[in-house]
Amino acid sequence: MKLNINFSVLEAAVSKMGGTSGQFTIKQDYKPRAPIDIQLGAGFEVDFNDIKFETGLASYEGRQVLLYIKDHSYGNKLEQAIEDGKSGNRYHVADCSKLEEMRKKGRLERYVVTNKLDGIFKISRGSTENRETQEGESKLQICQFCLDAINYQGFKNIPRGPKRQSFVATFNLSDFFDTYSSFFKFMPSGIADNQKESYSDDWKQVSNSVKEKYQFICQQCGVDLNSNKRLLQTHHKNGVKTDNTDVNLTPLCADCHRKQPFHTHLFVAHKDTKSINHLRQEQGLNTKENWRDIYLLADPGMFGVINMLESHHLPMPDVGLEVTNEQHEVVSELELAWPLKKVGVAVDKDSAVAASKVGWKVFSMRHALSQFDILSRKLR
Ligand SMILES: [Zn+2]
Ligand SMILES: [Zn+2]
Ligand SMILES: [Zn+2]
After folding, report:
1. Considering the entire predicted model, what is its pTM?
2. Is 22 domain-assigned?
3. Domain boundary residue among 149, 180, 211?
4. Which position among 116, 202, 262, 275 has the lowest Cβ density within 10 Å, counted as fewest Cβ atoms?
5. Last residue of a domain, one of 209, 241, 269
6. Is residue 9 part of a domain?
């Protein structure tokens, strides 16, 4: 948006008072939020068919969302759910077996989609003859079938019962959205707004001098980012963002940084992870000796798949492999790939389609998990 404001009246007044008018520019960091982002923050009801599950995760207009049924009409469910979220409807984040069941039964009600991350949801009871519509808020819980479908943080390996319940009770939506941020075109803007908290005023200078001191090299994976300095970030080792002492600061590439413990809200676009992986490859850093290396290199959105591969003792994949056609042009990039078998797992649909056109068998994250037996047979 360009603003054209006529300051001639002001300037005339200034010169009348004997002043001179100076040049000034308005600096601004303001990023306008699209109306859809504002709506998603509040949540609104949509038709189930408008929610997409291309990667396995729920999305609406290119944004990651969660979905739930607002109506808690039957019995005293509304009161119970307000009291204790466990009694309310579960919210979904993925294409799970529960949603599949509902789909088969043709029981697809209207769902609220939202990317609100505090876990507090508006619920209601519709009006009846002798009762008005009522609303309330509830700390609803995540659907366990969803966690199972995407094997979030190795959920598949957690035995049914109290252990799963305590996983659900401590489930953190910000961490969850962060894990899959590269799967979506748009980042939740509500989160981007929160990022500025609690850094010291001179943080920019401090951060720059740390990066210079370490010659723009990530201190975890060793990637040299002199050619793309934007992808280097300064990390507070003890987590205290106001503690800028030398020993507490270290430069990390955006990919290593987001994988540090307790680093929610570090959204890294998939193209940036790709760039980092390219540089690692060019610099001969993309070596993998064990599964730990795979976790360090791969996009966190793939950890559920990697966890399954590892626990089934399947061959380790290449990470971030470029797929070329017969003319040696790069046509696709696969997050996980087994080039000898021509099998891969892709983050986005375009990469999957492009690679299958040149003879690859490509799975989405969701299908790598739901058709894991097929994938594993191809890899043995
Ligand atoms: Zn679910
Ligand atoms: Zn790194
Ligand atoms: Zn950090």
Report:
1. 0.79
2. no
3. 180
4. 262
5. 269
6. no
Distance (Å) from CA 145 to ligand 1 centroid = 5
Domain assignment present for 214 = yes
Supply the range of the domain harboring residue 107. Answer: 35-180
Backbone angles phi, psi at 40, to 5 degrees: -65, -30
Going from the Cα of 221 to the center of ligand 2, the distance in angstroms, rounded, reads 4
Taking the centre of ligand 1 as the mean of its atom positions, its distance from the CA of residue 179, in whole angstroms, is 18
Give 9-64 pLDDT, tens digit per residue: 666 665 666 665 555 544 444 556 677 878 888 899 999 989 999 889 999 998 99
- Is 349 within 8 Å of 54 (Cβ atoms)? yes
DSSP SS3 for 92:
strand
Domain count, the chain: 3
Identity of residue 102: M
252 C-alpha to ligand 2 centroid (Å): 5
Q: Do 362 and 227 have their domain in common? A: no
**245 found inside a domain:** yes
User: What's the CA-to-centroid distance between 180 and ligand 3, angstroms?
Assistant: 18
Residue holding tokens 């507490």? Answer: 248
Residue with tokens 């609406």: 60
Q: Is the backbone of residue 162 left (phi > 0), alpha (psi -120 to 50) or beta?
A: alpha
Q: Are residues 135 and 175 in the same domain?
A: yes
Give 255 Cα–ligand 2 centroid separation in angstroms: 6
**One domain, residues 294 and 378:** yes
Same domain for 155 and 71: yes
Instruction: State the ligand closest to the CA atom of 263.
Output: 3
List CB-based neighbours of ion ligand 3 within 5 Å.
235
What are the tokens at 320?
Answer: 């971030």
The string of pLDDT tens digits covering residues 84-125 is 999 999 999 999 999 999 888 887 778 999 988 889 999 998
Measured in Å, residue 219 CA sits from the centre of ligand 3 at 12
* 231-284 residue pLDDT tens: 999 999 888 888 899 999 999 999 999 888 777 667 788 888 889 988 998 999
Dihedral of the CA atoms 10, 12, 16, 17 (nearest 10)?
Answer: 30
